[in-house]
Amino acid sequence: MSKVKIEWSPGFAYAIGLIATDGNLSIDGRHMNFASKDIELIETFKKCLLLDNRIGRKARGGEIDKKYFQVQFGDKNFYDFLLDLGLTPTKSRTIGKLEIPSDYFADFFRGCIDGDGSIGFFNHLESRHPQLRIRLVSAGNGFLEWIKGEISNLYGIKSGWIETKEKEISSLIYAKADSIKLFEIMYYKGVEYYLSRKYDVVKKFYGRVAELV
To answer: Which residues touch 163 (CB under 8 Å, ≥6 apart)?
Structure first.
């Protein structure tokens, strides 16, 4: 019996974005895991997929302190669906293009940013004008190239760039006015699922586009 209802919706697409960035598929072909330091994100993930599994704690990277919340669940049908989308048990290095419906790409992208991205701003050292960055981090450079291409094709936002630093970790970055455009796409009127602390950063920029261009 399937635990997750496989039907595209804003919440479903948002959860897929979370899985694509901070989720994990077990090699057993059935179980999945999603972990985050934000309990709010775990609870939202459960709500999006209508899961009733308990929330546990875990450590990462050889650490002893269990700083991360997690939810684990088994669902063979949903697991196979994720494989069909393009996800794999070793997705951190192999992830590339995913089969995401264009109508729900904004929700998927918001899930990616909430999972393994950041929204931040700082004052330029010379002009003192506020500078804005939307950044998505991934070990899969092909995944970031695909997202960059989709954002260009769907929304006409072409100025993002990809930086690769140590340990082959890459970042897709958007700055200034194009980040504002992405905000309006990601946080459309009536949007329901998002991480509050990142949206709080977004709200600081509404009405200030002229300062950013």
So the answer is: 170, 171, 173
For residue range 19-46, what is the model confidence (pLDDT) as tens digits? 999 999 999 999 999 999 999 999 999 9
What confidence score (pLDDT) does residue 213 get? 38
Select from 51, 86, 104 the last residue of a domain: 104
pLDDT of residue 61: 65
The answer to whether residue 93 scores a pLDDT higher than 80 is no
Sequence letter at residue 48: C
Angle at 31 (CA atoms; ends 27, 36), nearest 5 degrees: 100
Q: Say if 5 falls within a structural domain.
A: no
- The reply to whether 203 falls in a domain is yes
For residues 190 and 78, what is the distance between their CA atoms, to the nearest angstrom?
27
- pLDDT of 202 reads 81
Rounded-to-5 percentages of helix, strand, coil across the chain: 45, 20, 35
